[in-house]
Structures are given as structure tokens and as C-alpha cells.
């Protein structure tokens, strides 16, 4: 098959797009990672019971404090509702206990519990992905 | 073959041309929209457009509607072409790009929805991002590339206005082979889009509603995702559909027809899902019928009107809860709300449409009296405010009336159990249900408050208003004038009808005067005038409003209306006993009092806590009143506070402020009782803090909520806790000074009568009537309550000594007779206790009823005799007011509770043995004091003179 100059350039320019896409992809990936792992400091005073704070659901009881991501494990909707002592997702109706355990679908995974870290000044924070 | 002529056309324009024209109008309007839209404050800038920039509002509306037109016509265009098998007419490259552009269309539409920046948008962005994340390997990066971070719309904005829009336009032009559709297309589309844009402005969704839906074209996806535990399946479905569409270009006609039928079925199923999602999904995506809520609520904000007014009055638009609220442009002079509720604007409570300055549109779907439980989930109990409390209140006994219903059904022989849980809203048409609907069913919180004004003795229900609505004197005066003005308006309308122009002219002249004198000052003066200026018009009041406050209660007035009935604890507490009097003359005597409902009460001894200035909520905590979320059958289950929680016997368990639950802490803060170092008493049964109390290490103190005075709380006397003789006695057994007691009640049903249905607030066929015999006030009877296997002697009154005739016209029907005593905390506590004899020598205390109980002594033995005052009932042979017969027992069906009973014969003997001693011995004598410590020991050392009872 004879490759004309016109045809060659046509394919050449298309091939050039591949490294461009690759650069864009890696750049986006890097930016994404830079934006991940948001550090969220917990409020100094936390009430007993459930507190919705920033992207977190904080459950304080006599047994201690548990911090969950407020994002539903089904499709990431922010949970900011309690009904009949259950955390309820407005978008698709998933329900979780106040301890983050899933009780009704469509979600099947429990809420993501975040580890509480204390910095050198004694302030508590979590890493929110 | 040229198939141009076979395309479906409307006004001689194809769907494709309509779609092309729509996207061009959308793009042009989008360019103009870029100026007022602020990507860093999307919701704020759009609410500003809706309220104060009418031009931008119209452009946004055009942008929205042209996009919807584009979507619909694109779909129709696509179907039309598939119908004609034109997919083979375009090149493979174009067909591929057209297939891909399906995704572009969805993206450009969805990104527009996300850019609203309201609560729905954030959730749509989350769902979209998470869906893309599910694409293996590259999903995360692609979602970041398309949507950026969740708190920043810049990337979405760039792709919406540039990337997606440009590529889409290129693909459209490429396959349309034209850069514009025909002039005819625009001449139809432009007027159509402008008119609909003018009439229906897309609204914003605030955070108050728990109904969250995506754009209408993706509600089907939302519904599908609800059913998919693994959302990746959805991506797979999308891939299959796209692949099928792409492959249509390569299929034979027969295969192609088959695939198109499949696609059509897909489309039909999707439409079904959309209808379900749009019309049958309510709060938290729970199934609901469309007539149970408004599926169109808050989607559109009505037509664009009153340009002149809007352009000339924009200075009063304020930012409330992250949005600009139009209500305040007219209602900025609202005063009266305390701090906690003064900063949440109007629509948080009253709903309506805050994003418009058009009065009718703003007031559409508005609630004049928020707080009624029926709507409380959208108002007081929205997810941004008191959601958890509303949940609890719904289950509270004050809302369910479970105990009342349970006992009534038992008495009517409609239930064998006294422990079933009921809800008043579920009352049906059984005799017991109708009985309650006729006589009792108004005293529950979900009874709707429909009239403006403060809570008074005649108020029933009202949801949150029942306890938290507070009218200042100014608010009462304003309401009075408002009502006068409404009446005046009505009169004017009437006069206008009759064309009496002179009065109308006069009023117009008055209005002119208002303007000259300064509208505001004049109106304030008018209100301070005590509302005497009856010529004020309703519209004059629109700009000055004394709003009732919503706050924590600080009086018993809220409780009085309902609790002056049944057990009558409110009137008991204040020392009033209901009489059968009806003469109005008697109330001139200060010993009598007439309530607003006409009942006349006579003065009795009041409760010592009332004398000390305490109100109901000084003892009863928020979780007792509003419920703790649990469903209870009877009130003593929901009430957890006990006398010993404050009148300390032992060192109490205390709590510090930091350990409070959220609600208790909030109330403590609002009442200014929050002190970090303070040790608060707790309710022993639950551990809940008593926020208006504290313990200083040796004494307990109470802060009275009415006036914030501090009262040192007394400890029980040693006689109350010493020895074993009275160890089972409750505090109220000795300290209740009297109880109202109604005996000989007859209730009958007249099927031909009519009566008001207290549940549904309307007249109903059939009538239950109640006739009482005697209304007495006396010491209550004593009996036994078993709780957690512990025996307690407590107080009881005749709960139901009743005959029931289910059909008064039918002489053959069986009359139901019940003799049930009810546990009663009468709220007539006195510091001084009842005497020893009032328990040990009185027949009422033992449950025999009124009469003469005497001790016949013969030698060194005695015999107890009893002559009842009331005749024996023909139904059970007992005196009418008795709980038990003299030296008899009743084991079953004797009470309105399963865990209580009258005294057994052995217990009666023990009580009357002491009674026999008291015939001769002074209660204050050493021997009687010794008997309190160890009665058995006293009995072992009897003198020869002692005459113990001889039992038959």
C-alpha cells in the first residue's frame, strides 16, 4: 500500500495525540493525588451523640469517639440525616446504624471509619480521602 | 433514496432542526449568563439572579429551557432516524462520533445541573463522580479530570461552557452539514422557549427538604441505582446500549430492526423508572404516592412578573442560610423572634418560594402555621434543624395517645390486652374508636392548629406550637389588629360590591395621609394605640409584623388545656377540683373558678411544688415530654423522673456539662444554666441530666424555670426511710393530699345522633354521650404496683367504673360493665403526709369504698366491720365506689394496668392489724413509732389489754 505524504501526516498527527493524552492523564492523576487526603481537625468540644461536621459523622458515646466519612458507600452522597436512630442517605435510601453499620441497601458496605490522629499540639484530626 | 420527506415534522420543521436550533439558543444564552453567574458562589449568585436581576433570571430560564428542548428533540431526532434506517447514510467516523456524543449530551446537561450549586447539585456531582470512579483503572483520574474536586466547580464549569459544548457543536454541525438550522426553526423555537421561560423559572433546591432528586431525565437512573447494589452494573448497561447503537451501522436490516426493538424496550423501561422515581419517591427515596406530597415542589418558581417593582426595590434582599431570600424584601420589619430563630429567614419555617419577589409565587405552598406535626418534617423538623426531635415527638405518648386507646379498647372488650401500642391517627370505626373520636381524640400533638393566636385553655395539639409558641403582648396586639384589618378588608370588598364609593374614597384619602406622615411611624403608632384605629387596612400591616416567638416554655399554660382533663393533674396541681356546677353565679365566689370551656372548679389544697413556684417542666424533662423515641403504652413508662431524683436519700449520681447529650446541653445553654464546673443531678432511671438542678456536695438545688430562683431541695424525713414497715411505700402514697374521683359513669351510643369528630375535625354520624354520677375529691385508694419484681404501695383512683351501652335504642344488647382502678399521680403533694389512720382505718384507702369501717372489741379480740355508703352494683355486687369487697380479693381485670392490683386478703389483714392498734394508741405514741421499725417485735410484746383482730 502506498502511503502518501497527506496520509502519513494525517496518521502522524493522530499518533501525536497519544503522548498528549498520556501527559494530560498523568497530570490529572498527579493533581488528583495532591487533592486527596484532606486533613480535617475535629472540633474541640464534641457533644454526646451524633455530630455532622464538615465531611464527617462523629459519634461520641461513653465508650469514646468514632469518626466516619459522611459519604454513603453506595455512591458517595453526603449523609446528613438521622431517622429513627439510623443514618439515612437521601439519594437512594441506604441506612446505617449510628456505628456506621449498613442496615438497608442499596449500600452493602459499612461507612468508612476514619482513624483519629493526635498531632504534637494535642489536636485531633482525621485524614479524609 | 432521499428520505427527507419521510421525517416527522412539526410545522414543517424536523426534530433535528429543532434540536440544532435549541442548542444554539442554549449556547448564546449561556454566554450572556456567564456575567451574573459566579462559579465560586454558584447558589448565592443564582439566588441573586432569581431575586434581583430579572434579566439574568430570564436568560437563565431560557438557557435551561433551550437545553431541555435540545435534549427532548435530540432523542426524538434519534428515534426518527432509526425508524428510517438512516444510520448507514453517514460515514463510520461520523456515526462513531454521534454515538460518543450521546455521552456528551448527558454530560453537558448534567454539568449544567451541577453548576446550580444547590444541595441537589452537590449530591448529583457525588453520584456522577462515584459512578465514573467505578470504571476500572482509569475511573478515578477521569472523574477528577471531568469534575475536579467536590468543593470547587471550576473544572465542571470549564467543561460545561467549553470542552463539552464545543465538541458537541462540532459533532452536530458535522453531521447536519450546516452551521445553522432554518429561519423557520428559530421563528418557532424562540417564541416557544421565551414564553415557557417567562412562565416557568427553574428554581433552586435548599437543604431543608429531604426529597432529593436529580434532573428529570436522570431520575430513572437514580431509581435504577436504588435497586443496584453494585453500581458498576449500570456502567455495563450503558456500555451495552452504546455498543448496540454503534453496531446498528454495521448490522443487516433484519438484525438492526431486532436491536432497535430491544433499544425501544430499554427506552420504555427507562421511562417507567423515570415515572416511578419522579412521582413515587418521597423523602429519603422512600415510596410515596404523588398525592401524598407534591412532586413538582420547588422545581419551578412561577412566572416572571412585576419588573418595575423588582428593579426598584432590591436593597432589602439579605443573605440567609447561604442563600438570598426574597421574603425579606417585604417582611424585613418582622420583630419578636428571639435569637435562636431570628436568623433563619422566613421560608425555613413557612416554606413558600424564597427565590422570587412575586407575592403570589412567593406565597405558593406556604404554611401559615408551621410546627403542626403533619408538616413538621419540612419545617421545624427539617434535616437542617430539629429532625431528631420530630422523630421522637411522633412516637411520644402525647402524640400517640396509646395508653388512652389501649384502655378504652380493653374496656369495650375489643382487646384482651392492656399493653398494645396504638396511634391515634389509626383510629377506625369500632365502637371504642368512635367513642374516642367523639370524646377524647383532640388531645394529641398532631391535632392541627389552624387558627392564629397563642396557646390557651381551649387549644388542642398544634405540634411544636403546643409548647413553644409564645405571643408577646405586642404580638397579641398586632394579631388583634391584623384580624380587625382582615375584617375591614372583607367589609371593603363588600362595600365595593355595593359600589359605595364614598367610604372607599375616604380610605384612599387615609392611605394618602399615611404616606405623608411616614408609613412606618404611623403604623407603629396605630398599633400602640391599642388597635383602636379600626380603619387600618390589612395591606398596611404587611410591612410591620410582630411575630410570635418560638422558644422554650416557661409556664404551665401550654399544658393546662389538655391536662385539666382526664386525671386533671393541671387543675389538681393548682388546687382546683372539678364540680358538677353550671351556675355562673358561683364563680363570683373566689373559691370557685370557671375555665374557658365552661367547667366550674372549687378550691382545694394545691400541690406544695406549685406553692413554691414550680412549673411542670421543672420536674418533667424534655425527653419525658417530647418522648425519647421509644413507643410506650402507658404514661408511667414514658415518665422517668422520681421524687428521689431531687429529694435525695443517698449521694446522687451527677453529670458535668461536657457529658450532656446534645439536646440537654442545648436547652441548658438556651436557659443559661450551662456551667462547666456544675454537678447536675440526673434522672436515676435513665441517667439523663436534670438541667435545672445541681448538687453542691451535700445538698441538691433546683433552678425554677419560671423565674430562675434557686430552691434548696429538702431530703426525706427519717420517718420516711426508717424501719421496714413502710419500706414499700411510694412517696405519693403518703403525700398525696387528695385525688379527683369520678364514679358511676354511664356511656351510651346513639346511632341516630351527630357529634363532632375530634380526630378529623368534622361532624360525624353517631354520638357517644357520657353521664357521670358523682364527682368526688378524697384521699386516693392504695394498692400495689409491681415493677421489676419490686412491690410498691401506690395511689389509685377509679379509672373506669362504667357501664357502656353500645346502642341505646336496642334494649336487648348487652351492657358492658367494668370496674377498673387506675394508678394515679394526682399532683396534689403536700409536705405533711396523710395520717396513719387515714390509711389503716379508712375503707377508701383499702379499696372498700366509702362507708363506716369500725372495730368491735369483745374481750381481748376484735372484729372489723364495714357498712358501705354506696349501694351494691347489680353487675358485680360491690359498692359502686369500691375497688374490692370487704375482705375480698380481685385478681384479674381489676385495673387499667396489668402490673397493679388491690390489696390481697393477707395485706388487708396486716393493714387492719395496725389499724386495730391505732384504735387505742395515739399515732405519735412510742409504741406506734416502735411498730414502724419492727412491728413483729411489737406484736410479740402485747399487753393483756390489747385486742387483736379476729379473722373469719
Question: What do you see in this structure?
Answer:
The complex is a heterodimer of chains A (129) and B (952). Chain A is an alpha+beta fold and 129 residues long. Chain A is built from 1 helix and 11 strands; from the N terminus they run H-E-E-E-E-E-E-E-E-E-E-E. In chain A, the strands form 3 sheets. In chain A, strands 2-3-4-9 form a 4-stranded antiparallel beta sheet, with no helix packed on it. A 4-stranded antiparallel beta sheet of chain A has the order 5-6-7-8, with no helix packed on it. In chain A, strands 1-11-10 form a 3-stranded antiparallel beta sheet, with no helix packed on it. In chain A, strand 6 and strand 7 form a beta hairpin. Chain A is elongated. The relative contact order of chain A is 0.15. Chain B is α+β, with helices and mostly antiparallel strands and 952 residues long. Chain B is built from 39 helices and 27 strands. In chain B, the strands form 10 sheets. In chain B, strands 18, 19, 21, 22, 23 and 26 form a 6-stranded mixed beta sheet that branches. A 3-stranded antiparallel beta sheet of chain B has the order 9-11-10. A 3-stranded antiparallel beta sheet of chain B has the order 14-15-16, with no helix packed on it. The model of chain B is unreliable at 306-312 and 511-541 (pLDDT under 50). The A-B interface holds A 24-25, 28-29, 31-32, 35, 45, 47-49, 51, 71, 74-78, 80-85, 88-93, 105-108 and B 122-123, 126-127, 129-131, 138, 140-141, 144-145, 149, 210-212, 222, 225-229, 231, 283-286, 383, 387-388, 391, 629, 658-662, 665.
Average pLDDT score of chain A:
81
Distance between the termini of chain A: 53 Å
How many E strands of chain B?
27
Strand content of chain A: 25-35%
Low-confidence stretches of chain A: none
Q: Largest contact between protein chains?
A: A-B, 34 and 38 residues
- Trace the largest sheet of chain A across and list its strands: 2-3-4-9
Helical content of chain B, roughly?
Answer: 40-55%
Oligomer, anyone?
Answer: heterodimer
Number of helices of chain B: 39
Mind telling me the C-alpha Rg of chain B? Answer: 37 Å
Shape descriptor of chain A reads: elongated
Residue stretches of chain B low in confidence (pLDDT < 50, at least 5 long) are 306-312, 511-541
The SSE string of chain A, one letter per element, is HEEEEEEEEEEE
Q: Whole-number radius of gyration of chain A?
A: 23 Å
Instruction: Please state the overall shape of chain B, judged from the principal axes of the Cα atoms.
Output: elongated
Q: What does the main sheet of chain B amount to?
A: 6 strands, mixed
Broad structural category of chain B: alpha+beta
Largest sheet of chain A: 4 strands, antiparallel
Amino acid at each position: 500500500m502506498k502511503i502518501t505524504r497527506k496520509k502519513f501526516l494525517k496518521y502522524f498527527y493522530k499518533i501525536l495525540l497519544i503522548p498528549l493524552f498520556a501527559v494530560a492523564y498523568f497530570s490529572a492523576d498527579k493533581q488528583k493525588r495532591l487533592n486527596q487526603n484532606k486533613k480535617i481537625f475535629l472540633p474541640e468540644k464534641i457533644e454526646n451523640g451524633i455530630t455532622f461536621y464538615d465531611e464527617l459523622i462523629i459519634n461520641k458515646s461513653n465508650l469514646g469517639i468514632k469518626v466516619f466519612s459522611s459519604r454513603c458507600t453506595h455512591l458517595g452522597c453526603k449523609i446528613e440525616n438521622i431517622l429513627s436512630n439510623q443514618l439515612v442517605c437521601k439519594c437512594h435510601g441506604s441506612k446505617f446504624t449510628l456505628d456506621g453499620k449498613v442496615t438497608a441497601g442499596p449500600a452493602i458496605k459499612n461507612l468508612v471509619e476514619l482513624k483519629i490522629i493526635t498531632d504534637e499540639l494535642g489536636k485531633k484530626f482525621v485524614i479524609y480521602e | 433514496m432521499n428520505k427527507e420527506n419521510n421525517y416527522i415534522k412539526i410545522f414543517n420543521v424536523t426534530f433535528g432542526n429543532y434540536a440544532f436550533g435549541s442548542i444554539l439558543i442554549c449556547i448564546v444564552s449561556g454566554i450572556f449568563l456567564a456575567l451574573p453567574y459566579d462559579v465560586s458562589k454558584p447558589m448565592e449568585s443564582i439566588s441573586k439572579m432569581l431575586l434581583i436581576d430579572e434579566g439574568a433570571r430570564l436568560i437563565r430560564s431560557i438557557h435551561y429551557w433551550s437545553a431541555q428542548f435540545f435534549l427532548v428533540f435530540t432523542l426524538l431526532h434519534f428515534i426518527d432516524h432509526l425508524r428510517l434506517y438512516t444510520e448507514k447514510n453517514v460515514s463510520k467516523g461520523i456515526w462513531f462520533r454521534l454515538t460518543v456524543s450521546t455521552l456528551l449530551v448527558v454530560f453537558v446537561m448534567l454539568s449544567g445541573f451541577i453548576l446550580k450549586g444547590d444541595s441537589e447539585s452537590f449530591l448529583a456531582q457525588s453520584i456522577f463522580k462515584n459512578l465514573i470512579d467505578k470504571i476500572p483503572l482509569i475511573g478515578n483520574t477521569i472523574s477528577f479530570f471531568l469534575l475536579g474536586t467536590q468543593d470547587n466547580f471550576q473544572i465542571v464549569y470549564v467543561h460545561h461552557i467549553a470542552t463539552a459544548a464545543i465538541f458537541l457543536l462540532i459533532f452536530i454541525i458535522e453531521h447536519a452539514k450546516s452551521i445553522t438550522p432554518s429561519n423557520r426553526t428559530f421563528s418557532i423555537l424562540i417564541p416557544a422557549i421565551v414564553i415557557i421561560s417567562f412562565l416557568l423559572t427553574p428554581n433552586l433546591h435548599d437543604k431543608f427538604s429531604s426529597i432529593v432528586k436529580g434532573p428529570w431525565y436522570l431520575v430513572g437512573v437514580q431509581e435504577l441505582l436504588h435497586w443496584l447494589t453494585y453500581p458498576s452494573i449500570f456502567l455495563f448497561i450503558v456500555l451495552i446500549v452504546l455498543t448496540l447503537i454503534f453496531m446498528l451501522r454495521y448490522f443487516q436490516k433484519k438484525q438492526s430492526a431486532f436491536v432497535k426493538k430491544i433499544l425501544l424496550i430499554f427506552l420504555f423501561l427507562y421511562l417507567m423508572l423515570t415515572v416511578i422515581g419522579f412521582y413515587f419517591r418521597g423523602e429519603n427515596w422512600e415510596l410515596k404516592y404523588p398525592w401524598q406530597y407534591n412532586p413538582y415542589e420547588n422545581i419551578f418558581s412561577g412566572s416572571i412578573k412585576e419588573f418595575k417593582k423588582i428593579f426598584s426595590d432590591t436593597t432589602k434582599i439579605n443573605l440567609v442560610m447561604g442563600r438570598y431570600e426574597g421574603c425579606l424584601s417585604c417582611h424585613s420589619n418582622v420583630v419578636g423572634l428571639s435569637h435562636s430563630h431570628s436568623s433563619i429567614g422566613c421560608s425555613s419555617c413557612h416554606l413558600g418560594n424564597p427565590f422570587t419577589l412575586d407575592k403570589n409565587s412567593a406565597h405558593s405552598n406556604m404554611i401559615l402555621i408551621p410546627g403542626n406535626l403533619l408538616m413538621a418534617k419540612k419545617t421545624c423538623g427539617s434535616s437542617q434543624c430539629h429532625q431528631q426531635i420530630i422523630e421522637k415527638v411522633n412516637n411520644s405518648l402525647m402524640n400517640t395517645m396509646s395508653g388512652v386507646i389501649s384502655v378504652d379498647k380493653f374496656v369495650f372488650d375489643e382487646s384482651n390486652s392492656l399493653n398494645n401500642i396504638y396511634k391515634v391517627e389509626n383510629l377506625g370505626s369500632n365502637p371504642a374508636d368512635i367513642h374516642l373520636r367523639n370524646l377524647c381524640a383532640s388531645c394529641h400533638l398532631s391535632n392541627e392548629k389552624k387558627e392564629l393566636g397563642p396557646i390557651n385553655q381551649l387549644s388542642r395539639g398544634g405540634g411544636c406550637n403546643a409548647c413553644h409558641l409564645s405571643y408577646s403582648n405586642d404580638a397579641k396586639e398586632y394579631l388583634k389588629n391584623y384580624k380587625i384589618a382582615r375584617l375591614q378588608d372583607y367589609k371593603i370588598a363588600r362595600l365595593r360590591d355595593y359600589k359605595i364609593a364614598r367610604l372607599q374614597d375616604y380610605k384612599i384619602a387615609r392611605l394618602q395621609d399615611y404616606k405623608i406622615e411616614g408609613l412606618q411611624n404611623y403604623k407603629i403608632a396605630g398599633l400602640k394605640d391599642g388597635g383602636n384605629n379600626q380603619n387600618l387596612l390589612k395591606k398596611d400591616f404587611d410591612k410591620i409584623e410582630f411575630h410570635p416567638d418560638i422558644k422554650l416554655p416557661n409556664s404551665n399554660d401550654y399544658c393546662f388545656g389538655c391536662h385539666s382533663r382526664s386525671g386533671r393533674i393541671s387543675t389538681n396541681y393548682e388546687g382546683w377540683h372539678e364540680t358538677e356546677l353550671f351556675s355562673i353565679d358561683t364563680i363570683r365566689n373566689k373559691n370557685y373558678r370557671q375555665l374557658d370551656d365552661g367547667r366550674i372548679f372549687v378550691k382545694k389544697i394545691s400541690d406544695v411544688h406549685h406553692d413554691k413556684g414550680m412549673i411542670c417542666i421543672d420536674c418533667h424533662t424534655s425527653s419525658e415530654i417530647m418522648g425519647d423515641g421509644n413507643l410506650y403504652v402507658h404514661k408511667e413508662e414514658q415518665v422517668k423522673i422520681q421524687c428521689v431524683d431531687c429529694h435525695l436519700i443517698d449521694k446522687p449520681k451527677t453529670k458535668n456539662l461536657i457529658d450532656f447529650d446534645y439536646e440537654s446541653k442545648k436547652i441548658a445553654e438556651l436557659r443559661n444554666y450551662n456551667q462547666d464546673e456544675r454537678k447536675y443531678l440526673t434522672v436515676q432511671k435513665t441517667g439523663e441530666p436534670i438541667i435545672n438542678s445541681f448538687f453542691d456536695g451535700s445538698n441538691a438545688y433546683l433552678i425554677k424555670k419560671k423565674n430562675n430562683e434557686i430552691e434548696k431541695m429538702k431530703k426525706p424525713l427519717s420517718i420516711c426511710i426508717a424501719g421496714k414497715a413502710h419500706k414499700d411505700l411510694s412517696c405519693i402514697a403518703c403525700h398525696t393530699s387528695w385525688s379527683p374521683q369520678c364514679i358511676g359513669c354511664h356511656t351510651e351510643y346513639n346511632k341516630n345522633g351527630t357529634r363532632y369528630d375530634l380526630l378529623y375535625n368534622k361532624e360525624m354520624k353517631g354520638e357517644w354521650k357520657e353521664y357521670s354520677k358523682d364527682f368526688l375529691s378524697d384521699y386516693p385508694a392504695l394498692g400495689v404496683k409491681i415493677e421489676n419484681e419490686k412491690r410498691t404501695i401506690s395511689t389509685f383512683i377509679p379509672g373506669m367504673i362504667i357501664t357502656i351501652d353500645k346502642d341505646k335504642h336496642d334494649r336487648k344488647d348487652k351492657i358492658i360493665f367494668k370496674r377498673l382502678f387506675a394508678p394515679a399521680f394526682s399532683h396534689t403533694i403536700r409536705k405533711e403526709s396523710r395520717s396513719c389512720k387515714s390509711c389503716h382505718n379508712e375503707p377508701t384507702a383499702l379499696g372498700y369504698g366509702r362507708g363506716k369501717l369500725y372495730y368491735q372489741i369483745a374481750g381481748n379480740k376484735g372484729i372489723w366491720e364495714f357498712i358501705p355508703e354506696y349501694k351494691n352494683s347489680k353487675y358485680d355486687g360491690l359498692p359502686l365506689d369500691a375497688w374490692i369487697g370487704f375482705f375480698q380479693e380481685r385478681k384479674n381485670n381489676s385495673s387499667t394496668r396489668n402490673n397493679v392490683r388491690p390489696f390481697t386478703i393477707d395485706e388487708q389483714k396486716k393493714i387492719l392489724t395496725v389499724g386495730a392498734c391505732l384504735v387505742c394508741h395515739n399515732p405519735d405514741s412510742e409504741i406506734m413509732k416502735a411498730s414502724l421499725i419492727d412491728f413483729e417485735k411489737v406484736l410479740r410484746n402485747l399487753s393483756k389489754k390489747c385486742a387483736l383482730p379476729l379473722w373469719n
